[in-house]
Amino acid sequence: MTQLRSTIIAVLTSSCLLTTHPTLAAPSPREQILFDDNWRFTHDDPAGTGDQLNYTNVEKWVTATGAELTTNSPTARPDGNLGSDVSYTQPGFDDSSWRQLNLPHDWAIEGPFRQEYDGATGKLKYWGPVWYRKHFFIPSADSGRKLFLDLDGAMSYSEVWLNGQFVGGWPYGYSSFELDLTPFVKPGADNVLAVRLDSPSESSRWYPGAGIYRNVWLVKTAPLHVEHWGTFITTPQVDPAAATVRIQTRVDNETGDAAAVSVKNEIFELRANGAKGRSVASLATDGVPIGPHETGSCTAQIVLNNPRLWSVTDPCRYVAVTSLEQNGRLIDRVETPFGIRTIQFTVDNGFLLNGRRVRLNGVCLHHDLGALGAAVNARALERQLQLLRDMGCNAIRTSHNPPAPELLDLCDRLGFVVMDESFDCWARKKRPGDYHLAFPDWHEKDLRALVRRDHNHPCVVLWSIGNEVPEQRQSDGWKLGAQLAALVRQEDSTRPVTAALHVIESGTNGFQNVVDVFGYNYKPFGYAAFRTNNPAKPLFGSETSSCISSRGEYFFPLSDDKKQGSVDFQVTSYDVAAPPWAMPPDAEFKGQDDNPFVAGEFVWTGFDYLGEPTPYDRASTNRLVFTEPATQARADDELKASGKIEVPSRSSYFGIIDLCGFKKDRFYLYQARWRPDLPMAHILPHWNWPERIGQVTPVQVYTSGDEAELFLNGRSLGRKKLGPREYRLRWDQVVYEPGTLEVVAYKNGRRWATDAVRTAGSPAKIELKADRAQIRADGKDLSFVTVTVEDQSGSMAPRARNSVRFSIDGPGEIVATDNGDATSHVSFSSTEREAFNGLCLVIVRAKQAAPGRITLHAQSDGLKDATVTLRSVNR
After folding, report:
1. d(CA 319, CA 323)
2. Short-list 261, 230, 235, 262, CA closest to 248
3. Do residues 679 and 752 touch, judged by C-beta distance below 8 A?
4. 128-182 pLDDT, tens digit each
5. What burial class does residue 849 get, using C-beta atoms within 10 Å of its C-beta: 0-12 exposed, 13-18 middle, 19+ buried?
6. Which of 131, 109, 103, 129 is CA-nearest to residue 121?
7. Which of 178, 543, 601, 742 is catalytic?
8. What's the confidence (pLDDT) of residue 634?
9. Is 601 a residue of the active site?
10. Distance between CA atoms of 219 and 181, rounded to whole angstroms?
C-alpha cells in the first residue's frame, strides 16, 4: 500500500451527488443481477384500453418518479392504482402467446422498411404502444431487503407495474433511471413485471430505436446502503509525484432508526481487461451518523504517490472499492472505476490533457448500431471505436443525447475523450412529438441523472447542454441555457459546460457567456471573428463538415460545386459534396490551421446512421441537383408532375464509415491529417470504368506525405506537392485506360508510402473474412464477417452487385446482414443480401452456453462458394 497522507471528512448532507453504475464483487450483500433474459413482448394495448395510459393522462403518476433528482417540491402520487383495470398489468394475465426474447431489444429495426414512412427517420415504424412482461422468483431470504429495477434506457415514455401495482415511469428514452420495487415485491413467490412503452410519432429527426434497447438490472441491497450513483470521485490535485483522490460516498438509511456506519475506501489499480490489480491505498471513516430515512455523506481524501495518469494514449485506471460496515458487519460494497487526469480548455492552446495539448480529432455518433438498430451491444460499440482509432480519432460526441453506459466504459478503457450531450431540443420543438413535450417537467431530472451517472468516467471532458436549440434565435434564449448550465455545475464543477451552437449570432448574443467552452457548428469561417469578439473564451468545432458520400460511387464529370455529385439517390465519393450549410473536410481543416487556437473538431459523422438521408430527405428536398443533364431533366419532370419526390433512402450519407463499418474514401483523408506519422497513401476512384476508355477520369490521392507521383501502367503522370492549406493531391486530367494506377508518396523528400488500384476482372468468387474467429458463448458476443465479391485473381470487383445467400451451422445465428447501400429496403434480418460495390456484411452471434464450431456459408449464382469457421468458447 502506498499512501503519502490522508484527510477524513464526515458530514451529514441532503445535497445530491453521483457515481458510476456499480459493479460488485463478492462477498458483498449487494447483488446486481443482469435482468435481460426471458421477457415476453407484444405490440399495442389490449382491446378497450383506449387512451387511458397515454402520457397526457398519466403524467401526474409518472412525474412522481425521480423526486431525488429535483430541487422542486416532489410531485404527489395520486391515490389509487394506475392501470388496475388493464389486463396486461395483472400478474395473472396469460402472456404465453407473446413473443419470448432477451434484452436489449429494438423491435422497430426488424422492419419492414416502408416507402410511406417519414424518410428522415429511416423508413422504420418506431412509434406506438408496446408491452414487455417478465416473470421472476424472489426468494424468501430477500424479505427485508431493498429491491430496485435499474433501466439503462427504454424508448420511450415508459410505465412500469410490478404484480399489478404501478411503480413509476420515465419519458426520456435516453435516460437511465431507477425504480424502487420494494413496496410491491412478494418474497418467496413468483413476481411479474409489466412495462409499457409508447414513443410518439414524429418524435425524432433521426431513427431513435424502439423498445427496452439497453440493459436492465435487478439490484438487491440492505435498507442501509450506498445511494444509487452514490460515489463521487474527483482528483482535485494532480502532479507526477502525487495525486489527491477525493471520494464522497452518499449513504441512504431507509430504516426508521438512526444509524452509524463505517465507510472504508480501498483503491486498486485496474488492469486493461477490467480485473483488479494491486491495492495502492485505503482509508476508513468510522462512526458516520445517518438519521432515519435520511441520506448521509462521507468524504475521504487519499493521496497516491507516483500516480498512473489516464490519457488517450495510455488510459490507465483505478477502481475504488467502497465498503459499508455496521457494528462490524459488512452491509454493502460497490466498486467505482475512475481515472486520474487533468483537463483544461485554454484560449490560445486548445485542449490540455495532463498539461499537454491534445487536438480533438473527434466524431459525432448517433446511438444506432446500423443493422443491429439501437439495441446496445458492447462488441459492436467496441468495433466502432477500434475502426475510429485506426483513423486517428480520439474524441466522441454523443450526439444528441445521453449514451449507453457501455460506450463510456469502452471510451475509458480504450482512451477516447467524450463530449457527453443531453438534449437535441429544449422548450422549443424541432419535431411535433420531440422532447419539448417533456422538457418542462423533466429537464432537471434528466440533466442531473446524466451528470450523476457519468461523472466518474475519466473519458468525459465536456458536458453539453444541447444541440442547435431554436432558443439561439430568441433575444432572451440564453437565459434558459444559463439555467441548464447552472444545474450541471451544481452537480459537477470539475468539467466545463458547452453546447453545440449553429447560429453565427450565438457568438455575440449572450449564449457565449452561458458556456465555459464555446462550440460552433459549421463555422470555420467564423473562428477568427469569434476570437475577436470573445478574447477569453475557449473555442472548438462542435460539429463540422457534414460532407456526404456513398461508398464506392463516383460520378462524372467531377465538379467542385458542393451541390453537385448526387445521382440516382447516391452521392459521389470524391468527397466534395455537402448540403447547403456544410462543406468538404478541407474547408474545416483550413479554418483550424488558420486559427490554431481552436481546440479541434467533432466531424458529422463517424458512421452512417439510420435516418436523415440528406440530400434525399423530404424535409430538405425541393429540387434535387444532379450532375448528369439527363438525370436532372428526368428528376425535374417528375417533380413538376407529382409535386414531390419519392425518396427511397433510409440511412444517412454523412458517415466517414458506412453503416456496415466499411471505410469510405474520406476515412483516409482524415487518417492522413490525424495520423501524420503513419506512412499511408490512398487512391480514388477505383479503376474499373470500361465505359470510360479514352475519357477524362480524375484521380485524387490522400496521403500523410507531402508530395506524390502517380503512374498509370508504369507511365508517370507527374509528381505533385501539397501547397499551403491543401489536403489532397489531384490529377484532374487523367484519361482512363484499363490496368494499374499506382502512387508513390514522399515526405521530406524521402519515399514514404504507396498505394495501387487495378482493373478487376468479372466477379468469380466470394471471400469471407471474420473480424474475430473466436467469440464468447454468452448469447451477446458478435463476429462481423466481411463478404467480398472478387475476380478470379482475388481482386475485389468494385462495382459488383451480386446477390449472396447465407446459412449457418453450429451454435451460432445470423443476427443481421447489410451492404451499406442507403437505398436498400431489404430487412436487416434477411439471410440474402446483394453486394453493394463489391461488399456486404454478415453479423454472427454465438448462442448462450453452447460453445463449439460455427460455420458460415455464402453462395451466389455464378460465383464460387465460400465458408468461414468461427469458434465460440465459454470464458
Report:
1. 13
2. 230
3. yes
4. 999 999 999 999 999 999 999 999 999 999 999 999 999 999 999 999 999 999 9
5. exposed
6. 109
7. 543
8. 62
9. no
10. 10
468 catalytic per annotation = yes
Question: Strands 417-421, 395-397: parallel, antiparallel or unpaired by DSSP?
Answer: parallel
Give yes or no for a contact between 8 and 297, defined as CB atoms under 8 angstroms apart.
no
3-state SS track over 616-660: CCHHHCCCCCCCCHHHHHHHHHHHHHHCCCCCCCCECCCCCECCC
Among residues 227, 468, 471, 707, which one is catalytic? 468
pLDDT of residue 647: 83
Q: Which pLDDT tens digit goes with each residue over 71-120?
A: 988 888 999 999 999 999 999 999 999 999 999 999 999 999 998 887 78
Percent of the chain as helix, strand, coil, to the nearest 5: 15, 35, 45
Instruction: Supply 33's cell numbers.
Output: 443481477
Q: How far apart are CA 251 and CA 30, in angstroms?
A: 14
Helix-helix angle 439-454:477-491, to 10 degrees? 40
Residue-level length of the chain: 875
607, 657 contact by CB (below 8 A) = yes
Closest CA to 336 of 276, 422, 273: 276
Beta bridge partners of 332: 324
- Cα distance between residue 509 and residue 472, in whole Å: 8
The answer to whether residue 494 scores a pLDDT higher than 90 is: yes
C-beta of residue 268 within 8 angstroms of C-beta of residue 276: yes
Q: For residue 468, which of 401, 423, 435, 510 has the smallest C-alpha distance?
A: 423
- Nearest CA to 799 out of 692, 653, 643 is that of 692
Supply 543's cell numbers: 460539429
